[in-house]
Specification:
single chain, alpha/beta, Rossmann fold, 2 domains, ten-stranded mixed beta sheet, two-stranded parallel sheet, 12 helices, 12 strands, 22% strand, elongated
Length: 297
């Protein structure tokens, strides 16, 4: 399958009525928007009580006003924290997953703040957030609430050397380069598969090593389950990158295992990246785009 290259778009942050989640989302969104040199967009979905029901003009107006009020407070805070950034707001009537899926088509990155492990679990198994995670057109960054963007530790990308994912490797290499961070390329293999896995990883990232010579890369092949390897590798990491296929209903292995387990355990942000789309904000480099590749669980 070919890779779709998209024009740069803003970093979008999903905003809700929680001050702590809003503050966390804004700080991560601002950091990413500055790194990519793109605007910051804030979206809030004000869901009506019963989807598909008929509501009076007054009820619709009240819902719009509620969404606008939430966004105005968030935008004021964002402009205080980052007066150098252009900040836009988008109030939406409807459910959060539908709104976020829609805006992901015009976003470089979508930032979502998780509440706790229970909510992280529902992100991958429940009807609401599972839809965002599996169908978003852009990378989705899930961050723990009440945390700050870290400037320490490596970027970790988990790969399956047999399954192509240009997007995850491009995101990981470009992020490491921009942040001046080391990159760890992680591959989990079955018992007895260490040597074969190690060689496959080396071949997989050869093109990216050439195109990103400024990035210090360490490869790590471990005989373990993918969730265990990811959980261990994220200790002290600033970011974990997982590739994913966008789908229209088919459940994929990463939704059942790796991302579900990692989001429930890790304290660092986790980014899931569509394997077949790359935003020009990440400046893909042509040789690596033609190399044999393979992320991610």
């Amino acid at each position: 399958m070919g890779t779709t290259v998209r024009a740069p778009h803003p970093v979008t942050v999903g905003i809700d009525s929680s001050p702590s989640r809003t503050e966390t989302g804004l700080r991560y969104g601002i950091a990413q928007a500055r790194m990519l040199d793109v605007p910051l967009a804030l979206v809030h979905a004000s869901a009506l009580p019963f989807e598909g029901a008929t509501f009076t003009p007054y009820e619709v107006k009240a819902a719009r006003e509620e969404a606008t009020e939430v966004l105005e407070r968030a935008a004021m805070r964002a402009r205080y924290l980052a007066p150098d950034l252009r900040v836009t707001v988008r109030p939406v009537l409807g459910s959060a997953p539908v709104a976020l899926e829609s805006v992901s088509k015009e976003s470089s990155l979508l930032v979502v703040v998780r509440r706790d492990a229970g909510v992280a679990d529902r992100l991958l198994t429940g009807s609401t957030s599972s839809r965002i995670a599996t169908r978003a057109s852009c990378p989705v960054m899930v961050v723990p609430c009440d945390t700050e963007p870290s400037k320490r530790g490596p970027v970790v990308v988990a790969i399956d050397a047999d399954s192509p994912s240009h997007g995850a490797l491009t995101f990981a290499f470009a992020t490491a380069r921009r942040a001046g961070a080391d990159l760890v390329v992680l591959h989990a293999t079955a018992r007895g598969g260490f040597e074969q896995g190690r060689r496959a990883v080396g071949e997989t990232i050869a093109g990216w090593r050439e195109d990103y010579p400024e990035v210090e890369v360490t490869t790590r092949t471990v005989e373990a389950t993918a969730p265990a390897a990811c959980a261990d590798a994220t200790q002290g990491a600033r970011l974990l990158v997982l590739g994913r296929h966008r789908t229209t209903g088919r459940r994929l292995p990463w939704t059942r295992s790796v991302a579900k387990a990692v989001l429930a355990q890790t304290t660092c942000p986790v980014v899931t990246v569509p394997h077949d789309e790359i935003d020009l904000a990440y400046h893909p480099r042509p040789r690596a785009m033609q190399a044999p590749v393979g992320p991610v669980y």
